[in-house]
Amino acid sequence: xGANPEITIRQLGGVLHGSSLSVHGKTAIRAxxxxxxxxxxxxxxxxxxxxxxxxxxxxxxELLHHMIQSAxxxxxxxxxxxxxxxxxxRICAIKDVDILITDAGLPEKIRRNIEAQGVxxxxx
Length: 124
What we know:
By secondary structure, the protein is an alpha/beta fold. The protein contains 3 helices and 9 strands. The chain has a domain at about 40-124. The protein is globular and about 45 Å long.
């Protein structure tokens, strides 16, 4: 980027959310209809076995839900403190992602339940 001509950034259109600097809205969602990504990495505000993965706003959750559908592999990055927490917007069910990367503080029972839903849990 800038000094490195080999880096290209594709920015979705839409409304810029001030606190997270993420975009959302129908323009951003429409842009995803023409994109297929091999891997999607995203963070969450919380996750639990019943409600799934969540973030702070409904608009961000809706966009992330569409991003998951446009990706071959969805990978969640969340430290173990997010387990049992719920944000305001529901992104998706646990089973809708492929990999959860978290730390060794994740309780064993929760890890086993997530893996039982077909999610590969990687502890780092």
